Inverse folding.
């Protein structure tokens, strides 16, 4: 089946630094990927839709200059959290559109802790 | 705005019993619904989906029921096992499968008692 690999699984960074999270589709091409953020004991909140070769579409309230998304190839989308602050600490999850039986496949998530 | 919600935030069942997890949605234009299972520290795992032109779909030990009249979705898990302990989310999408973003419900934590 379709596999989405997300890296790193955990990252700790200092306040003010930037962190890049990668989302790769391993055995299929994904023209569309999604980025979600999940706070403890809460649901997944869509941050943005990433389209290969074009600018990402951000959800209302998500700062595009803070959460930079790049989808330069059909198998890779990256999310960069710039000038991270402790309130950015969260679980970030990507998903890719696969079509077929599962429609959407999710990565295993990245636990970001900003200290 | 449009939203997907759940009636019960937590559910405890005895091992071997059947579990029913409910979900209410408000976007009448949604035509695709998915149930996901999420274990601690992991991404959501697909369980079963259903299109709006159906009212029931069965998988292995799971059944999804869709009632469009009252905008209600449910997930039934038969003979619940310890490995079923997780948080379950419903999600709704609009448009062609895979072409639209998903909106997630609040989630229900399912706990299995031995």
């Amino acid at each position: 089946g379709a596999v989405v690999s997300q890296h790193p699984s955990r990252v700790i960074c200092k306040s003010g630094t930037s962190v890049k999270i990668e989302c790769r589709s391993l055995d299929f091409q994904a023209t569309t990927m999604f980025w979600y953020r999940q706070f403890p004991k809460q649901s997944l909140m869509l941050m943005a839709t990433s389209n290969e070769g074009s600018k990402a579409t951000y959800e209302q309230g998500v700062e595009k200059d803070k959460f930079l998304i790049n989808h330069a190839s059909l198998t890779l989308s990256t999310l960069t959290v710039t000038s991270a602050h402790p309130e950015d600490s969260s679980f970030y999850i990507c998903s890719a559109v696969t079509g077929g039986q599962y429609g959407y496949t999710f990565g295993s998530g990245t636990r970001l802790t900003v200290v | 705005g449009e939203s997907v919600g759940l009636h019960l935030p937590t559910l405890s069942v005895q091992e071997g019993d059947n579990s029913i997890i409910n979900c209410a949605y408000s976007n009448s234009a949604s035509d695709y619904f998915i149930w996901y299972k999420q274990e601690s520290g992991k991404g959501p795992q697909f369980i079963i989906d259903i299109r709006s032109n159906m009212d029931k779909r069965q998988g292995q030990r799971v059944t999804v029921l869709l009632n469009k009249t009252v905008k209600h979705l449910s997930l039934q898990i038969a003979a619940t096992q310890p490995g079923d302990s997780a948080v379950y989310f419903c999600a709704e999408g609009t448009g062609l499968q895979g072409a639209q973003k998903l909106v997630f419900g609040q989630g229900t934590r399912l706990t299995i008692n031995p």
